[in-house]
């Protein structure tokens, strides 16, 4: 499913959808919605997601890979960080662990859900999913290191009571996260860019210019069209995150009515926010570009940690209350299982439906245990 690109620029659904969603966000923000309006908001949210994927692909086709997947991952994460800080400033139950729950949900959903689904789609269509183990392995190593330093160590440090860092430890984690993320972006986009370019199932390296007609953006967009798509991409992502926040109250009521833990709210919102990356990753997987799908999945996980922890560290200067970052035993086990399965999947540079299903099973286990701890 995709938004058609017919009509003039201003009348295209891919232009109207994000603008309409943003207008709706301004109108409904802070208001109690009637059931009919809830349906309209959900439809506009879906339209904004599809528009975000469309414009991300336009930008990616203009700038090439791996810059395209990097732009989408960073854009989503920056807006997500803003949402987390806004919710934490507003206070309320559960905000002390909001950053931890959101970041961990993003890691599990991207590294297992999006990556597993992408590998499954490619393997079912091509027999085997092929990717660069050098680039994918470097990304996975960085994600595991960031997650361990920021989410596991707070559970075992003794300077502060509870699963939280002391001030000095939080600064160290924030600086380390930012340094690792910036260095990875440099390696991905400059020093070893070829490690992150797609490989087809026949072993052929591809670029956007060499893609077959199957790609809907056969002609390279002009600089003006790419800039317009970038602005509309940001507009769509703001609308997606904002409308997800609007729907969070309804989600909280449904979760509470079902007797589920409060952490499920964060999982549902994370699933909504990650929809653009999920759709973009699957569409690349269908084109035999598993590497781009993995770039999106692991890049989103890395950006979620590498940008959120430094931002939260700065925000903690004026935030009241504790900042709980440490994971519980169940989450640590799931993270360790993700790391082991990820390493074994990445090392050969090839994956079948079995490896894909393993990651989807881990993601399913995480979602099930989030609802049934």
TrEMBL record:
Top-level taxonomic group: Bacteria
Assigned keywords, A-Z: Membrane, Transmembrane, Transmembrane helix
Spans through the membrane: 40-58, 70-91, 103-124, 136-156, 168-187, 225-244, 264-282, 294-318, 324-346
Name of the protein in question: Ca2+:H+ antiporter
Sodium/calcium exchanger membrane region domain sequence ranges: 39-189, 229-369
GO cellular component: plasma membrane
A GO molecular-function descriptor: potassium:proton antiporter activity
Membrane topology: Multi-pass membrane protein
Compartments (UniProt record): Membrane
InterPro entries from the UniProt entry: Alkaline_pH_Ca-Antiporter, NaCa_Exmemb
Pfam family, any one: Na_Ca_ex
UniProt organism field: Krasilnikovia cinnamomea
């Amino acid at each position: 499913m995709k938004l058609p690109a017919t009509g003039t620029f201003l009348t295209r659904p891919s232009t109207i959808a994000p603008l309409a969603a943003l207008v709706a966000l301004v109108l409904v923000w802070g208001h109690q919605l009637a059931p009919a309006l809830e349906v309209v908001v959900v439809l506009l949210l879906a339209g904004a997601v599809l528009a975000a994927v469309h414009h991300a692909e336009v930008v990616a086709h203009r700038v090439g890979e791996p810059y395209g997947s990097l732009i989408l991952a960073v854009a989503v994460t920056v807006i997500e960080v803003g949402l987390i800080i806004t919710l934490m400033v507003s206070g309320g139950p559960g905000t002390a662990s909001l950053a931890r729950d959101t970041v961990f949900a993003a890691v599990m959903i991207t590294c297992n859900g999006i990556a597993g689904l992408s590998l499954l789609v490619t393997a079912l269509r091509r027999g085997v999913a092929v990717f660069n183990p050098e680039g994918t392995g470097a990304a996975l190593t960085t994600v595991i290191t960031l997650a361990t330093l920021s989410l596991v160590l707070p559970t075992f440090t003794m300077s502060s009571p509870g699963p939280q860092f002391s001030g000095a430890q939080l600064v160290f984690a924030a600086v380390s996260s930012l340094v690792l993320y910036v260095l990875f972006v440099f390696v991905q986009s400059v020093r070893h860019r070829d490690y992150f370019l797609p490989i087809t199932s026949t072993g052929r390296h591809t670029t956007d210019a060499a893609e077959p007609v199957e790609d809907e953006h056969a002609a390279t967009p002009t600089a003006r069209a790419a800039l317009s798509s970038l602005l509309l991409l940001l507009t769509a992502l703001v609308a997606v995150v904002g409308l997800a926040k609007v729907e969070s109250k309804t989600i909280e009521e449904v979760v509470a009515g079902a007797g589920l833990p409060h952490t499920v709210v964060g999982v549902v919102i994370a699933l909504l926010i990650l929809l653009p990356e999920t759709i973009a990753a699957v569409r690349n997987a269908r084109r035999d570009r598993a590497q781009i799908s993995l770039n999106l999945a692991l890049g989103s996980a890395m950006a979620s940690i590498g940008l959120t922890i430094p931002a939260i560290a700065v925000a903690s200067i004026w935030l009241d209350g504790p900042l709980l970052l440490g994971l519980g035993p169940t989450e640590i086990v799931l993270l360790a299982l993700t790391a082991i399965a990820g390493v074994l999947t990445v090392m050969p540079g090839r994956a079948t439906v079995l490896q894909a299903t393993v990651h989807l099973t881990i993601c399913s286990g995480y979602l099930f245990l989030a609802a049934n701890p």
